[in-house]
């Protein structure tokens, strides 16, 4: 294992920009959870400075601190000095992936996730298994099983009823007659050779000799076995988190296909490229369809190609830089001729706006990447820049708006989706407390660090439920899955919709479908 190599190290001038003021601390999810300096943005920056200045191999403390970061960029919003923590943490994570030897289990799990999520075809193949994972036995069956007395059932299974009755009728005095008479026991105990043997207790000494090596072996194995048990528990926690997040998407919806070109339905404003995403197109196809419908209704010609399959956001935010750069080049080449490039998933939009930084050292692509990133817009951001054309029909709903971190913090887009929702007659917008704290989804974070992600998810679900709103609006697929899953863990159902779905329902004049 080595320390930081010479390829794209975290830039010293960005590290020095942090003055350790602490404004970031109340907004950092891991600092809020654990209260440890090392798990705060400024603590992680100090670890980067140590790796940069002192050299040497990376340490477990450094890697754990950077792995524990959700990359939510709430600290970027809070920082008065404008520290570019987003660029720092992504460069540090890329260093970790190149120079740190992860455990075999961790490595295999990460490889499995990256072999699955950026591939829509593989996600579609997984959809039937996700549907099976969501199956629950009928409530009546559950109630009967819970009412069943385990001891009585076990007794009925162990012995036939007649045997049980005879055993219960057996009186203790009858059993006592099977023992030797007390007088004989007393005389034997008084016999001198037997008394001496009893006092010497050779059996106990022999047993002690036999058990001593076993006890020593058990003492040696206790710590390794505890570590093995902890590793097994951690290994099982990640697949359990994946099953818990399984989306409630009808199988027929996973094969939805968008037309590659959609004509504008009002006077043409321009031609936009629409990035369908990997998770979004499979499990939230209705969101993509609503996005195309709204853009067309507002005068945009929509170009929505099937490829590229992924924009590289998951890889970029996890430190897997080479695949991220390859997918970035494919995306740029596909959409260069468009007036704007639209994303409706916050993580995708954030990643594409970072292409200029990602490809800054590539002479053939650096300028193209900067020009491309300048054209990227979130769907709500683009729509809010223009006066609406399509008539909005009333929706009698109360809506709690959830700020997706990669939209609010990474892209700085907070007002646009709210402004669009306020344009809908009859819709009442409610603001939950703690908007700046991440819900725990954070790309693949809830599958890599399921315990803190689950705690953050429960807290966020409680805050949203406390608003009493009919619907939660969230502009990111990971957030939608996380919030719905942790509301279920609290015994509640939370209807999570993309803001674009609400706008599409208002334009079409049809109620939201469950």
UniProtKB/TrEMBL annotation:
Q: Which UniProt keywords apply?
A: 4Fe-4S, Iron, Iron-sulfur, Metal-binding, Repeat
Q: Where is the 4Fe-4S ferredoxin-type domain?
A: 8-38, 59-91
- One Pfam family from the UniProt entry? CCG
* Superkingdom in the source lineage: Bacteria
Q: Which SUPFAM superfamilies match?
A: 4Fe-4S ferredoxins (SSF54862)
Q: Is the keyword Nucleotide-binding assigned to this protein? A: no
* Record-linked PROSITE patterns: 4FE4S_FER_1, 4FE4S_FER_2
Alphabetized GO MF terms: 4 iron, 4 sulfur cluster binding; metal ion binding; oxidoreductase activity
InterPro entries registered for this protein in UniProt: 4Fe4S_Fe-S-bd, 4Fe4S_Fe_S_CS, Cys_rich_dom, Helical_ferredxn
Task: Please report the name of this protein according to its UniProt entry.
Answer: Glycolate oxidase iron-sulfur subunit
The source organism is: Conexibacter arvalis
């Amino acid at each position: 294992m080595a320390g930081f190599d010479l390829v794209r190290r975290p830039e010293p001038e960005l590290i020095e920009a942090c003055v350790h003021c602490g404004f970031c601390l109340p907004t950092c999810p891991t600092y809020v959870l654990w209260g440890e300096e090392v798990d705060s943005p400024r603590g992680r920056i100090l670890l980067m400075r140590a790796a940069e200045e002192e050299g040497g191999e990376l340490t477990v403390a450094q890697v754990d601190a950077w792995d524990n970061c959700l990359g939510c960029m709430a600290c970027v919003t809070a920082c008065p000095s404008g520290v570019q923590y987003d660029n720092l943490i992504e460069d540090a994570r890329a260093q970790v992936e190149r120079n740190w030897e992860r455990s075999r289990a961790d490595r295999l799990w990460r490889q499995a996730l990256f072999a699955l999520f950026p591939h829509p075809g593989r996600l579609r193949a997984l959809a039937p298994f996700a549907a099976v994972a969501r199956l629950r036995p009928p409530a009546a069956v559950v109630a009967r099983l819970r009412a069943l007395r385990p001891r009585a059932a076990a007794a009925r299974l162990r012995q036939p009823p007649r045997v049980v009755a005879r055993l219960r009728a057996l009186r203790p005095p009858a059993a006592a007659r099977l023992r030797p008479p007390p007088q004989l026991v007393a005389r034997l105990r008084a016999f001198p050779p037997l008394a001496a043997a009893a006092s010497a207790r050779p059996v106990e000494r022999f047993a002690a000799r036999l058990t001593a090596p076993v006890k020593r072996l058990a003492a040696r194995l206790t710590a390794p076995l505890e570590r093995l048990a902890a590793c097994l528990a951690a290994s099982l926690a990640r697949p359990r988190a994946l099953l818990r997040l399984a989306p409630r998407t009808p199988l027929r919806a996973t094969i939805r296909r968008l037309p590659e070109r959609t004509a504008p339905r009002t006077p043409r404003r321009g031609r936009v490229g629409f990035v369908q995403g990997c998770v979004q197109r499979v499990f939230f196809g209705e969101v993509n369809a609503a996005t195309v419908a709204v853009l067309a209704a507002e005068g945009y010609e929509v170009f929505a190609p099937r490829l590229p399959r992924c924009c590289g956001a998951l890889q970029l935010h996890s430190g897997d830089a080479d695949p991220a750069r390859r997918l970035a080049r494919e995306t740029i080449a596909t959409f260069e001729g468009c007036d704007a490039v639209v994303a409706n998933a916050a993580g995708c939009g954030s990643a594409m706006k970072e292409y200029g930084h990602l490809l800054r050292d590539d002479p053939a692509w650096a300028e193209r990447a900067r020009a491309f990133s300048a054209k990227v817009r979130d769907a709500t951001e683009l729509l809010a820049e223009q006066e609406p054309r399509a008539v909005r029909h009333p929706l009698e709903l109360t809506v709690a708006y959830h700020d997706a971190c990669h939209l609010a913090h990474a892209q700085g887009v907070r007002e646009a989706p709210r402004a669009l929702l306020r344009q809908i007659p009859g819709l009442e917008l409610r603001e939950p407390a703690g908007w700046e704290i991440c819900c725990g989804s954070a790309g693949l974070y809830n599958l890599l660090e399921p315990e803190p992600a689950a705690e953050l998810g429960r807290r966020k679900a409680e805050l949203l439920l406390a608003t009493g709103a009919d619907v939660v609006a969230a502009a990111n697929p990971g957030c939608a899955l996380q919030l719905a899953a942790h509301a279920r863990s609290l015994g509640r159902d939370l209807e999570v919709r993309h803001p674009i779905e609400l706008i599409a329902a208002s334009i079409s004049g049809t109620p939201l479908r469950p």
